[in-house]
Write a structure and sequence with these properties.
Layout: E1 5-8, H1 18-26, E2 32-38, H2 50-59, E3 63-69, H3 77-83, E4 87-91, H4 98-107, E5 111-116, E6 134-138, H5 153-167, E7 172-176, H6 184-190, E8 194-197, H7 199-202, H8 207-215
Enzyme class: isomerase
GO biological process, one term: pentose-phosphate shunt
Catalytic activity: D-ribulose 5-phosphate = D-xylulose 5-phosphate
Length: about 220
Amino acid sequence: MKTPLIAPSLLAANFLEIGKEVEMVNNSEADWLHLDVMDGRFVPNISFGLPVISQISKIAKKVCDVHLMIEEPEKYAEAFQKAGAQILTVHIEACVHLHRNLQQIRSLGMKAGIAVNPHTSIGLLENVIRDADVVLLMSVNPGFGGQHFIEQTYAKIRALRALIDQTGSSALIEIDGGVTLDNARSILDAGADVLVAGNTVFASKDPIATIKALKQ
């Protein structure tokens, strides 16, 4: 089995020590740094935005994986690229013209991701899967950390893996929400490539060891 990519989610970090938290991720076996942007409209929460990501990207040595949980993401794609985003993921539910959104992101030199909420069918990705570099399956309802993994996600991972294989897409499957040391193996066995982990990493007594355990 191939080694998974690990993307600690900074939403669960101690924001009074944000520089130290980023350095911890830099010094770990993590592959990406997951950055959740929430607007209080698409999801019922507000997180951080462009100024924070711009500062984080200056010291981050991992890939900056920016997940936009916002309405009208096309208005901000260029700004997030300038702030340091290397992967930019938009929600299928927030995009009226998803194919155009993906083209825009790629034209700016970033990898393009599609995020999918728990209620959204994998079948809706059929006509855009080849245009995505990443598909992020939400395994909790978006907006808040610390939620429990939705079991139906395993079936969605398998369905998405089948769609990717059938279409010849090279998209990676990223799982976000409720990922723990207990369920990581089952998630990967279902076909996932990337694990986003927030509380599991940042609430751990030894985050670097926890990232290593997820990686293994």
